[in-house]
Amino acid sequence: MAPSPLPVSRPALLTALVMLILLVGARPASGADGWVWPLSPAPDVSRPFEAPLDRYAAGHRGADLVGTPGASVVAVAGGVVRHVGTVAGVAVVSVDHGGEISTYQPVSGEVRVGERVSAGDRLGRLLLVGSHCAPRACLHLGRRIGEDYADPLALIGRTAAIRLFTPTGALPSPPVDLGPTGSGALGVPAPGPVTSSFGMRVHPVTGVLKLHDGMDVGAPCGTPVRAAADGTVVGRTAHPAYGNRVVVSHGGGLTTSYNHLSRFDVADGTRVRRGQLLGAVGTTGLSTGCHLHFMVVRDGSPVDPATYL
Ligand SMILES: [Zn+2]
Ligand SMILES: [Zn+2]
Questions:
Q1: Does 72 or 269 have the greater pLDDT score?
Q2: Which of 37, 131, 207, 255 has the most CB atoms around it within 10 Å of its CB?
Q3: 3-state secondary structure of 297
C-alpha cells in the first residue's frame, strides 16, 4: 500500500516556512542587549512611563524624551517598519522587533512599511506638532507587547541613571539614592495607620481580586500630604480610579504618587523637596472613604512602599 499523502499541500508548507523565516529574521540581533536611544545625544526624560490601571485607563503609555524639532529619530533596535503615517492626527512610525513593537511620535517618517531597519537606522525627523511637551519638542517613545504597553526606558540606558528634565521648570537634581530598602529613604507622606498594604486583595469597590498597587494610609480628609523625597512633579491629574493624583519623579526610574486627593497644592513641573506640601487627603476617584493611596513605581512597575519607609 502506498503511504498516504501529507495532509498539507506543498505551497502551504512553503508559505509557512517563509513566514517562519521572516518572523525569526525580524528579531533584533541584539534583543537581549536592550534598546539604543532613539535620539542623540542621549536625551533627557521629561515624563516617564506611567503604567495605566488597566488597558483602557488613563496613564502615560510611553516616555517623553526631550529633543529639537527636525532631529533625527533612529530605530531603538533592529526590526521591520510596521507603520508610517498618522494615528488620530499625530505622525507615528512604529517598528516591529518580532514580538515587541517600538513606536515613535510625532515623527515624519522617511522609511517604508515593510522596510527592514537595524538599531540606530534613521526613521525620520522629530516634529513639533503633536508634541506631548508643547511648546517644546519631545519624542514620545512607546513599547508595545501585544496589546499591552511597557516601559521603554526599562530597556535603555539602564547603566546610567535617568535624569529628569522639565521644560519649564528648574534644573534637574541628581536622582535620589534609595540605598538598602527599609532604610527610611522615603518619608511618610501623611500621618496615620496603614489601613491596607501593598499586595493582592479583593478591591473594596469593584469586588475584583487584583494587585493593590500601593499602600493606604488612613487619615481624615484635609490632612496634609507631603513629598516622600526630593523630586519633580511630573503629573497632576484627575484620574477615574486614582482620583486627584500627584506624581513625583525622583530620577533613576523611581516615581511616587499620591492618590484620591481632595486638593492640589503644587503645580505640574514644580521641583519639590522631601516633606513639601503636595495636597490634602481626600476620597476622589474609586475610593470608599478618606485615605491616601501612596504608590512607589520603580522602572514602570509598582513596588511595595513599605520597603522604602
Ligand atoms: Zn508622551
Ligand atoms: Zn489603595
A1: 72
A2: 255
A3: strand
Q: How far is the centre of ligand 2, averaged over its atoms, from the C-alpha of 164 (Å)?
A: 27
Q: Ligand 1 center to residue 285 CA distance, Å?
A: 23
Lowest-pLDDT range of 97-106, 151-160, 172-181 = 172-181
pLDDT score recorded for residue 10: 56
CATH architecture of 31-155: Distorted Sandwich (2.70)
Cell numbers linked to 36: 539604543
Mean pLDDT of 221-243: 92
| Ion ligand 2: residues, Cβ under 5 Å | 214, 216, 293
Q: Count other C-beta atoms under 10 Å from residue 122's C-beta.
A: 12
Contacts of 94 (CB under 8 A, 6+ apart): 81, 82, 83, 101, 102, 103, 104, 142, 144
State phi, psi for 23 to the nearest 5 degrees.
-65, -45
As given in the structure block, the three cell numbers for residue 66 are: 526631550
Q: Which CATH number fits domain 194-308: 2.70.70.10, 3.90.550.10, 3.20.20.450, 1.10.10.10?
A: 2.70.70.10
Q: Which three cell numbers stand for residue 263?
A: 486638593
Site of grid cell 519624542: 139
Q: How far is the CA of 155 from the centre of ligand 1 (A)?
A: 17
Strands 138-145 and 148-150: antiparallel
Residue type, 217: V
pTM: 0.46
Record the cell numbers describing residue 146, joined without a space. 501585544
- Taking only the tens place, the pLDDT of each residue in 133-164 is 888 899 999 998 887 788 888 888 543 333 33
